[in-house]
Please model this.
Amino acid sequence: MACAFRVSRSRVWSARAAFVSVFLASAGMALGAPIFSYSPDTGTVEYGDSDFSKELPSDIPDDQVAANGLTFNLYYQDWRDTRAAFGFDNAAATGPNAQNRLKDVLTYVANTINETGTIDVLVDESFYNTVSGSAAASAGTWYTSDPGFQMGSTLERLRTGAKPFPGYEEIHVSVNFAINWNLSTNAPSFSQADFMTILLHEMTHGLGFVSLCASTGQSAVSANVYTVMDQRVRRRTGMFPLFAGSPPIFQGVISDLTSQSVAWGGTEAKSLYGQNIAPGLYAPTTWRQGSSMSHWDTGKIIGGAVMESSVSVGVMRRTWKPVDLGGLIDIGYTSIEPPAAEGEGEGEVEGEVEGEAEGEVEGEVEGEVEGEVEGEVEGEVEGEVEGEVEGEVEGEVEGEVEGEPEGEGEEEPGGCQSGKASFEWDGIRYNLGDLLLSGLSLLALAAFKRNGLGPRK
Model:
């Protein structure tokens, strides 16, 4: 993913502030310390001044989410700009549902991280971009220019109770409304991207799940400035730390960053992952600014995770997986109550279920399923599968997958390891192989039933 510098009103303010800061500095006037915002998924760096430039609206919030002792103040730029109704705007067709899904996600976050306090969230101007490489959404937080491993302004405010940078939000997020979003609470169709899934991913970046490493190993924002996440990055061989020292420096070699062999060094993520191995970080053979190092190793996390760099359309991940929660605990969200590890309890459950349920299931299911399946499936599958699957798969796959993403995505290097055709739209994958195989499997089932084939008692 190429580094993208998107300019919106608030970003223009920051550009103007940078110009004025230089002017004031040349005049000998005192300035505040420079601050930096980094947004994974786009690789966008924004520069500000802790005393001079302000981008957060100074009036009361447009909305609030309060749950479990944590309050999110929401500021919607779509409400405040002069454009036609769009995105999160109340008057836009997408506005009310988009706002509600954002509030649903923030309620889940508050109920899960178990922190108290207040966080300001700037919902930046929404955009509409169908160009190949444009992001589905982006989010980030702010850092100072002081050398060290920083937690970011979100966690800093929660820890100290004080706003680190008055006039600046703790989390900023922006969404691309050119995407075919599922804005409902229902599951997405196989051609839709799930809005809540993507927002949870972006809000996790806003909490500080971010690497500031650039393609050279140096900091993407300022010399020797890295994150607490960078502090846990390891070369898998020997679990050698790639960033260490005071001030921290990159002590690996550049080839480490594209080796596909980078791992997480935090203890909680490894424990909750439950695979007796440290979860991998995304280090594809071609560096992808904004994606590399700031996500789990996409396509290789057993059971999947919210913080992989991409997710297929039709997939719903509205809650953090144990490995996600472990990562958040490792970077400082220590009030999270750890769930059971991914692999725990499997053997015990299998044994109990097999022993206790076998007789009951065989007796009940044989009678019920045989009658229902033969009666219902033959009629429904033959009619529905032939009609719906042939029509839907041929029509929707050809129309949505071939038509919509054409020229707007590319096969993800180092991401999906299945070898299937995969179309990615910056965080959203279109898996053509999966869609066609699902349709063909249902058609084959119908054919088997018509010809009297299949398992016999």
Observations:
- The chain has nine helices and 20 strands.
- The chain has a mean pLDDT of 78.
